[in-house]
Amino acid sequence: MNPEATESTSSGPAATPGRMTLREAELWAEQQLRIREDLRDRARLDASQLVEIATGTSRVARLAHPEAALTSAQQERLSELVQRRLKAEPMQHLRGSQEFYGRDFRVTPDVLIPRPETEDIVTAVLESVPDRNAALRIADVGTGSGALAVTLALELPGSQVTALDISREALLVAQRNAERLGAAGRIRFLESDLFANLRDDACFDVIVSNPPYIPLPDAPTLHAEVREFEPSLALFAGHDGMDVYRRLIPEAHARLCPGGLLLMETGGEVTWILEALRKGFHAVQVRPDLQGIARVVSARRH
Ligand SMILES: C[S@@+](CC[C@H](N)C(=O)[O-])C[C@H]1O[C@@H](n2cnc3c(N)ncnc32)[C@H](O)[C@@H]1O
Q: Which residue range or ranges hold the Release factor glutamine methyltransferase N-terminal domain (predicted)?
């Protein structure tokens, strides 16, 4: 994080001037957000969205009636949102939601904000199943907001999904998302360290996981939005970022039915993972994302 930016935000944004119109409110919010260098590039977009959250007006309504005045309650709300944004609080926390695979997921500080690259896991699963109505048993290890578990349950209507997370708070968020999006009936939520709390004989056709994979020493290089506002449990996995994979790969092997598929998101460092998958798996594939980073590794159990 830019230290200059931290200093310049410590006094907070200027008070809102008298009664503002929608247009003035957007300009004022943008000007305030520009104080912080690391938010400058997106200041205009963020300002527009903050006015939307504070006033409940759509972009179209704001364009049609830029002269409409904010109420004092809306102005106060906007000022509070701008202050929080200036402390690098993610827009998704201010809005309370993030879109994933075309659906709106509620997010809180207890869960990772779902990322667009994780949608590649959904695409890879859908490409690998010959029949979308098949009765698949799917496990999502480290479900967080439930983005993968809920999306797979909805895209594969014949499936039964087990959503596992070591964080009870995250599971509550995932469960609420499943209820809101109409998938709760087909997802079982379980607090568990990887597969530890599952019955011994439970086996799956598909196991997906976006585990924490950031090396702890990289923490200072992360943007403040991530480092200070997303749960450490969702981000870090030991000194080299591999701690969870080291346990996940053999445990997933033991939990897959013969021929079952394992799909994991990675941060790009796949050498160790590919080596580990040589034992007991075949059809190992690495899918790069749009930036060419190895993002999804998949493999079939023998
Ligand atoms: C990177 S987040 C992924 C969240 C969600 N699946 C997504 O893709 O947006 C990793 C999740 O794994 C969970 N987690 C970390 N260690 C775990 C463990 N040993 N067993 C189960 N879940 C774990 C964290 O609580 C967090 O919710």
A: 28-96
